[in-house]
Input
Amino acid sequence: MSTQKTIRTRRGLALVAGSAALALTLIGCSGGGEAEPAPERDLGTPVAGEIQEGALDGVTLTFAGSGGVFQDGQTEALWDPFAAASGATVNQDAFDAGKLKAMVDSGNVSWDIVNTTQFDTARGCGTLYEEYDYSQIDISKIPEGTITDKCMVPQILYGLVVVYNTDKFGDNPPTSAADFFDTEKFPGKRTVSQSTYVDPQTVEFALTAQGKDITSLETSDIEGAFDMYKDLGDDVIGWTTGAQAQQQLESGEAVMGLVWSGRGYGAAAAGAPVAPMWDEWMIMVDSNGIPKGVKDPQAAFAAVNYSIGAEQQAKMTELTSYGGVNVDAKPEVDDLLSEWITTERLDTGIAPNVDFWVENYDALSAAWAGWATGN
Amino acid sequence: MTDHTVTGGAAPAGAVAPGADAVGAKKRGPKNWRPLLLLIPAFVIVSMFFLAPLADVFIRSITDPVPGVQNYVWLFTTEANLNVVLRTFGTAILVTFVCLLLAYPYAYLMTIVSDRTRNLMQLFIMMPLWTSILVRTLAWMVLLQDTGPINGLLAAWFGIGPIPLIRTTFGVALGMTQVLLPFMVLPLYSSMSKIDKRLLPAASNLGANPVTAFFTVYLPLSKPGIFSGGVTVFILGLGFYIIPALLGSSKEIMISAMIQQQISVFLMWGQGTALGIFLLVCTILILVVVSRFNKGGSLFPGVDR
Output
């Protein structure tokens, strides 16, 4: 009996010890060790879209994008060729700003390049995102004015565009932001973003319709912009995801929508009778951001430099409809796609007032939170 | 198995049995703590993956971005938050009642039909659980929209419409009810199947009309099922995100969307975690209140006190 007792006690102790060891191991894993510093390489003078053969052999990079057709197209046009040329391995993941903050706060950053918005990189520059060393990137072919903070290189140039049903308004299409709000001249439901994700351009669009100059905004303008949408009453419906916006246009439920240009193209490519209004459209730029604390910034810079080459950007546009950021990019597009290319129509686009929104983000986010929750 | 392992007492079974007996007999003695060691792996896992993150969430809510209760002040002083909180609870209560109304007769039928029919009925109720919630929600989206088949038929047959179905509380409640119905039917069936069928004829024999017999005999006996189904559906209903987003308008958005927005978009983790803690505390309070009403038994059938 006493032997049995001893065995039981030992078992008990072993169990405690085992559990403690398991706990420690798991906690240890989550902490993350200090990685060796990345080697300094001589990659020469950067030329957009070029990388020395095998220069990054053995390096693994992870790109976190926004998913869907867009990320698939980027993978095919940018990251797979980059991996083949440089010898690096490029993994794909889905971007989420909250996840990025968790990574940076815990000092365990597993992304190297992320697709985010110019507002995000501007707000998080130096805290969530690394500042670029522009001497390692060839930005000579990037359109002027699209680099809006030190932590970004533009990724795509697209837009928030009015897309209308041509069966309804083919003969007499809307030609101004104000027309979007004119339900007498253009009857029917229109869809706008009520996603939890904030697009300041949605606010700027309403202000454009009011005749406001986007380059000189006041915080008091914000509420007025949301009131414009609320005043549409039952005629305004919301979309919470890009896919939903496209679905509402395709089904004809919305006769007009303020949607991302790629989603309008998606609806048109699916056969919906829709067309874009280019008279007053809101320019949007997505950023290539490098997370703060990235393990090998030089490799990440090289990948971004490769991705903005003319050839790569042209292919990405062909695959995704989103406008490239290299002025030399000449995508071969069919008739349908050519109607949706933003980069050809920058003269009628309205550029966002990035500084204003970064500075007044709290006012915008409070108003947007109310708008997105029906208050 | 050899004789040696069985009689040797070193096998886990030998270690458990005496202790379990002791606990069962509610004896207090020096030997009783040993079986508790078996709980250590579970305790370690729960601490690491539930308690520690929960503590972290709570600490963030009172320290992010600076120590203090400003996040809770924000929560209670922002009208939009309170509206969404009320809406969330209202929607969950509505869905719970709708589920109960639909599930009660269904579960009752399951207790009186043949085995084959019961299996079929069970299959019907389980099928939604096996389909992706996103696919189901998209199907509702297509069906319910103004240009969808339902409104199309209404227009073709009766010349009315379009009736707003999508982007209404109705649409959200419909989608949520479909998803949550099994969680109401199964506990109801489990508690109803234990009720002696002869009690109702006995009640009528004693002079009760069917309605009285139902309300005084059958309903009280099925109470454990109602409470456990109701609590499960209600608590699951509080956390819905994708269905209100796709079948509702901004006026049907629930608290989970606000938490997501604060965490992932605004990066205001203090405010997001305060919302989460508030939801958790409310849920626990409701559980406590409901369990007070359900004096007869546990909240979950099969777990008898």
